[in-house]
From TrEMBL:
Organism name: Planomonospora parontospora subsp. parontospora
Protein name listed in UniProt: VOC domain-containing protein
Keyword Transmembrane helix: yes
Superkingdom of source: Bacteria
Membrane-traversing stretches: 20-43, 63-82, 94-117, 150-172, 193-215
Alphabetically ordered keywords of this record: Membrane, Transmembrane, Transmembrane helix
The VOC domain, residue ranges: 238-363
Database matches in InterPro entries: DUF4328, Glyas_Bleomycin-R_OHBP_Dase, Glyas_Fos-R_dOase_dom, VOC_core
UniProt-listed Pfam families: DUF4328, Glyoxalase
Entry annotated with the keyword Membrane: yes
Residues forming coiled coils: none
Length: 369
């Protein structure tokens, strides 16, 4: 259901805090009402002894009130989501979101689709709302997903499953009237009550996490507005994006660069030609990355570990030389010299797992040097 929808960025960020406050209040109201109603039901509460019709009318009015608040909370959340997504396009112009705008509404109701689309929409909004934005053309499917969004969505799905299970077990226990089924009925009712309790707890957690997500994304976007809006786009005709590096094995190379040097795995795919494409990048870098290519010929095999004929061929820049030097040494990186200071900055040469010589460098122009 993903789409390559072309983004339509707005000219400027628009206020989002009022939408967030309304959504938060209504989500909190629904969460509290759901919890109270479930607790009263599980506790066996019933209407006081009154005329049956009056009790039925009172229950119907409360049910309608609950449904109305629930509907308003859903509308408020979707309205906030529309504004948040519009602002996200302004913060990260040129980045296509995974789903078209109609899915902000339809994604909650279409079966199967509603199991993953709403989470994907929130993930994309979160990723593109970060101050500074994402580089145009960034593939959002390769951006790390926030744990908070995962927790919210899993508790939301879990609450729905628990409620369904509780209803099924309770109905099953009620239908078992025969004496020989009495024990089974008790078991079914007990399990139904346990499922109902789990549903209440998960629903409360989902509501609180949803509020937290609304507040975090709102804070990110308001911080950009307070700073004067998105940073102006840097129009460039070209820049260095990828540097290829021949390796013996993809998996061991990925293990070293991500596990030892702390790089990010940007891409690990197998295009139609069958050749694996693996791209890694230093944390925090925005452009240049390494394209790892497994040696496929004797000539390439001979170049593994000797990319530049013995000289340092790659330089890893850092904003805190002592921190990264000690971290890398602790992880097993072999440095061939003690750190030294040159006119251009602090530097030390180290080897990767194949013997390629790298320079760890903190330029003199960097803060603190």
């Amino acid at each position: 259901m993903t789409s390559s929808t072309s983004p339509t960025p707005v000219r400027s960020l628009r206020p989002i805090r009022p939408f967030a406050m309304v959504a938060v209040v209504l989500i909190a109201a629904v969460t509290v009402a759901s919890a109270v109603g479930s607790i009263l039901h599980l506790g066996g509460w019933s209407w006081p002894e009154t005329d049956g019709r009056d009790a039925l009318n009172s229950a119907a009015r409360l049910l309608l009130l609950y449904a109305a608040v629930h509907l308003l909370a859903g509308i408020a959340f979707v309205c906030w989501l529309f504004r948040a997504r519009s602002n996200a396009y302004a913060i990260s112009p040129g980045v296509a979101h995974s789903y078209a705008a109609p899915f902000l509404v339809l994604g909650w109701f279409v079966p199967i689709v509603n199991l993953f689309v709403p989470k994907g929409i929130v993930d994309d909004v979160w990723a593109t709302s970060r101050p500074g934005g994402l580089r145009p053309g960034t593939n959002l499917l390769q951006v790390r997903r926030p744990g908070l969004v995962w927790a919210w969505w899993l508790t939301w799905i879990g609450a729905g499953c628990a409620d369904t299970l509780a209803a099924v077990l309770t109905a099953l226990g009620t239908e078992m009237d025969a004496e020989e089924e009495e024990r089974a009925a008790e078991v079914a009712s007990g399990l139904g009550a346990a499922a109902a309790v789990a549903g209440v707890l998960l629903a409360i957690a989902a509501g609180l996490l949803a509020i937290r997500i609304v507040l975090v994304i709102t804070r990110l976007q308001e911080a950009v507005r307070a700073a004067g809006g998105p940073a102006p786009s840097r129009h460039r005709t070209s820049y260095l994006g990828l540097v290829s590096l021949v390796v013996r094995d993809y998996d061991e190379a990925v293990g070293f660069y991500t596990g030892v040097l702390g790089f990010e795995l940007l891409e690990d795919t197998e295009p139609e030609d069958g050749r694996r494409r693996v791209v890694v990048r230093p944390p925090g870098a925005e452009e240049a990355a390494l394209l790892l290519e497994r040696a496929a010929t004797p000539e390439q095999e001979a170049r593994v570990g000797d990319r530049t004929g013995g000289g340092p061929g790659l330089f890893l820049y850092t904003d805190d030389f002592p921190r990264d030097y000690e971290r890398m040494r602790s992880a097993g990186v072999v440095f061939e010299e003690t750190p030294r200071r040159e006119p251009y900055g602090a530097v030390a040469v180290f080897h990767d797992l194949y013997g390629n010589r790298w320079g760890l460098l903190q330029p003199s122009s960097a803060e603190g040097v």
